[in-house]
From TrEMBL:
PANTHER family: DEHYDROGENASE/REDUCTASE SDR FAMILY MEMBER 11 (PTHR43115), DEHYDROGENASE_REDUCTASE SDR FAMILY MEMBER 11 (PTHR43115:SF4). Signal peptide: none annotated. This is SDR family NAD(P)-dependent oxidoreductase. Belongs to the short-chain dehydrogenases/reductases (SDR) family. GO terms for molecular function: oxidoreductase activity, acting on the CH-OH group of donors, NAD or NADP as acceptor. InterPro entries: NAD(P)-bd_dom_sf, Sc_DH/Rdtase_CS, SDR_fam. Keywords: Oxidoreductase.
Length: 252
């Protein structure tokens, strides 16, 4: 058993990429993990994998852009796993391209998932995180919000994605100040380019541009960011890692 024994984590966007890797990593340290996303088949397969390794997992099909579904995912986690010590707010979409003549529904999708979805999950989770910090096994609770290098540096061609991730940074810092005195640590993780399915949802011409940009670069793997998240949530109670920006070595 690891240092997260007796704790419960909810990971959003657990059906692929960083969320999937984070769920495996937290489970390996003894956390019971609730896995939230829309693709139930992927969640079931991951839950089976975690259980086969001796862990505890719960698949929770949820679209975080629906406030009721986000709240229900938190409630089901607490009802079935008993508590909530850690929220990894990771679900996100990245739809890049120029602002001029952009399909505005892509903006709406990004704001719905990356900003509102993250905030709905945070809102529903906070009472449970505060309770865990008051009398849980570690007397501390964590909310890890996954932003991006795009939340630090704006670039021509990713304006609205930049806007959503800057929003995540602002929200996280304000919330950190609000709850840190009560031992709920709010952390921001800002990955650079990670090899996942994320870019695959872009229009073909945009996807080509993204592929060219990273063609010769050794990108991060989802496990690298899972390590980062696990590092944050396994610090002693008096240590809060507020923010970590992790780029592939070659990324400028
Ligand atoms: P993936 O596309 O592999 O994962 C995204 C996850 O988000 C999936 O599990 C997806 O599940 C979930 N998701 C998307 N929409 C919703 C929704 N409406 N409700 C619930 N879940 C949803 O990409 P990554 O693992 O790379 O992305 C994870 C996070 O990391 C994102 O916030 C992204 O912005 C951030 N990030 C990624 C970087 C990269 O280079 N890959 C760099 C910087 C940040 P499903 O479709 O089943 O619902």
């Amino acid at each position: 058993m690891g240092s997260l024994s007796g704790t419960v984590a909810l990971v959003t966007g657990a059906s692929s990429g960083i969320g999937e890797a984070a769920a495996l990593s937290l489970a390996a340290r003894g956390a019971a993990v609730a896995l939230a996303a829309r693709r139930a088949d992927r969640l079931d397969a991951l839950a089976d994998r975690i259980r086969a390794g001796g862990g505890v997992a719960l698949a929770v099909e949820a679209d975080v852009t629906d406030r009721a579904e986000a709240a229900a995912a938190v409630q089901r986690t607490v009802a079935e796993l008993g508590r909530l010590d850690t929220l990894v707010n990771n679900a996100g979409v990245m739809l890049l391209g120029p602002v001029v003549d952009a399909p505005v529904e892509e903006w709406q999708r990004m704001i719905s998932v990356n900003v509102m979805g993250l905030m709905y999950c945070a809102h529903a989770a906070l009472p449970h995180l505060l309770a865990a910090a008051a009398d849980g096994p570690r007397k501390v609770a964590d909310m890890v919000n996954v932003s991006s290098v795009a939340g630090r540096v704006a670039r021509n061609g990713s304006g609205v994605y930049n806007a959503t991730k800057h929003a995540v940074g602002a929200f996280s810092e304000a919330l950190r100040q609000e709850v840190t005195g009560r031992y709920v640590r709010v952390s921001l993780v800002e990955p650079g380019a990670v090899e996942t399915e994320l870019a695959g949802h872009n229009r073909p011409e945009i996807l080509d541009t993204i592929r060219q940009r990273f063609a010769d670069m050794e990108r991060l793997q989802a496990d690298d960011i899972a390590d980062t998240i696990t590092y944050i949530v396994t610090r002693p109670r008096h240590v809060a890692v507020n923010e970590l920006l992790v780029r592939p070595t070659q990324q400028q």
